[in-house]
Amino acid sequence: MKARLLRIAGRVQGVGYREWLLREARRNGISGWVRNREDGSVEALLAGEEDGLNAVLTACRRGPPLAQVASIEEHFAEPPEEPGFTRRASL
pTM of whole model > 0.85? Predict the structure, then answer.
């Protein structure tokens, strides 16, 4: 299982990005979480098999219809201990 920690910047809050990512992750068998950050970005931990992970990473660059993704910082990470994909409280 591979894992990535993402920081997604642009117009990504107030446009349904977290709920959209929740659906994308679950559809592709990805574990982890997503949350808003105080600086206006969205942070997400994604973990799963390579095909599903790559599909979600590609989708994150596009985002939901109202989003405008300006940049994504991507770092290797440890997979989450708990299964499933959840929405966390804002940080």
Answer: yes
Q: How far apart are CA 3 and CA 51, in angstroms?
A: 12
- DSSP alpha helix (H) spans, the chain: 17-27, 50-62
Which fold, 2-78? Alpha-Beta Plaits (3.30.70)
Residue 18 designated active-site: yes
Catalytic residue among 4, 27, 36, 88: 36
Per domain, the residue ranges of the chain are 2-78
Catalytic site includes residue 62: no
Structure tokens, 11: 């117009």
Q: What is the mean pLDDT of residues 79-87?
A: 93
Terminus-to-terminus CA distance in the chain, angstroms?
26
Question: Which of 7, 11, 18, 61 is labelled catalytic?
Answer: 18
